[in-house]
Design a protein that fits this description.
Blueprint (H helix, E strand, L loop, with lengths): L6 H42 L5 H26 L2 H9 L7 H7 L11 H12 L3 H4 E4 L5 E2 L3 E8 L5 E7 L3 H22 L5 H15 L2 H18 L5 E2 L3 E6 L3 E5 L4 E2 L3 H7 L7 H25 L1 E3 L7 E4 L3 E4 L5 E3 L2 H15 L3 H13 L7
Parallel strand pairs: 5-11
Antiparallel strand pairs: 1-3, 2-3, 3-4, 4-7, 6-7, 8-10, 9-12, 10-11
């Protein structure tokens, strides 16, 4: 009689089979859900075509957007990976219906976390040291977990201050490449049969940016460049940028200064807890200062340096010490060629001066520049 396989070998075999078939299973789940969402919108489009009353048509579309938002939320939250990043992009008022924005914006930092045992293994392999040699303490629960990595609060042996340790999810890069291929195929289908918009190019740009985001050495360089630029350009930088800890950088682990703050999407709740009316005058002044600081920081990064943080979704903006702003996550950055930077700067100045002739000229120059985003 054949001897049964030891339990450890059975588990290893099961894991290998699971890893091999996971991309196929994931692709099938995506297509079933995507076709369901697309089909429900086409049915609504057909039904509203028979309704003459404009208000009734609008009500039907509102109801459809609510249904579509819930289905999209389920797709992104349950599949995770690239779809969480897609939710961050779609969860913006200029890109999606209000119902979608309200639903998808809640997905920031909602990715499943990697178990602490795996996190320890990744850190030790990247730094060639044991966990206990590196840290005095390391919080088991992550501060936040996103599609590519999760962040833990910790303290280094050599330091008295807390640090943020960003650790990549093992296997996330391979799964994201599967996801992006499916999204690109769906984009081509939509372009061919339904919409007059170049979605495919947007997904290609997304693919390029995702590849960059898995290189934490590159992210550390970008963070330090922006931090130093804002420091030398202002008496006091308009936003805080975390300081990278020297010698604690690898492709899959990045250790930086820990910044304590409230995510901007939770600001109103935090104000209420402190007895401040979120709709009152004091809150309005605080929000205006926050907006001014962010605008100044982005104006300087884009128009003065041409190198800027390109992922300002709510999960990456913290409010510290009442109204100070911290900008996190430099995995996505863009560098503009000098002629395009100058064209944008001239356009902004012309618009500020209400100079129609210069505005037209700046737009003409800008259109003639082919922007090779992003280095």
């Amino acid at each position: 009689a054949a001897m049964p396989l030891p339990l450890a070998q059975v588990q290893e075999l099961r894991d290998r089979l699971s890893d091999r078939f996971r991309p196929w299973s994931r692709s099938a789940q995506f297509w079933v859900r995507a076709v369901d969402i697309y089909g429900s919108y086409k049915v609504c489009q057909l039904r509203t075509g028979f309704v003459k009353d404009e208000e009734e048509r609008e009500a039907m579309w509102e109801q459809q957007h609510e249904i579509g938002a819930q289905k999209m939320y389920s797709l992104c939250s349950e599949l995770g990976g690239l779809f969480l990043k897609a939710a961050q992009i779609l969860g913006k008022p200029d890109l999606a219906p209000t119902a979608w924005v309200k639903r998808l914006v809640t997905l920031c930092d909602k990715a499943p976390s990697t178990p602490i045992e795996v996190v320890r293994d990744v850190v030790e392999k990247q730094f060639c040291k044991s966990f206990d040699e590196i840290f005095d303490f390391f919080e088991v629960e992550p501060v936040g977990s996103a599609s590519i990595a999760q962040v833990h609060r910790a303290r280094l042996k050599s330091s008295k201050t807390d640090v943020a340790v960003k650790v990549q999810h093992p296997g996330a890069e391979q799964l994201m490449m599967v996801d992006i291929r499916n999204m690109q195929a769906f984009a081509l289908f939509l372009q061919k049969y339904d919409i007059n918009f170049d979605l495919f190019s947007a997904t290609k740009e997304m693919e390029k940016q995702i590849c960059y985001e898995f290189d934490f050495v590159r992210e550390a360089r970008a963070m330090e460049r922006i931090r130093e630029f804002l420091r030398v350009s202002n008496k006091k930088p308009p936003v805080m940028v975390p300081r990278v800890i020297p010698g604690m950088i690898s492709r899959e682990v990045l250790v930086m200064e820990f910044i304590q703050g409230t995510p901007i999407m939770n600001l109103s709740n935090e104000m209420s807890k402190r007895g401040i009316d979120p709709a009152g005058k004091l809150a309005a002044m605080a929000k205006q200062k926050i907006l001014t600081d962010l605008t100044l920081a982005y104006g300087q990064m884009i128009l003065k340096d041409g190198f800027f943080h390109a992922d300002p979704h709510p999960g990456n903006i913290l409010i510290c010490n009442n109204t100070e702003v911290a900008l996190l996550d430099y995995g996505q950055v863009k560098e503009m060629p000098e002629d395009l930077r100058l064209a944008y700067a001239n356009l902004v100045i012309a618009m500020a001066d209400d100079d129609l002739l210069r505005t037209k000229e700046s737009l003409r120059v800008k259109r003639s520049v082919v922007p090779p985003f992003c280095k």
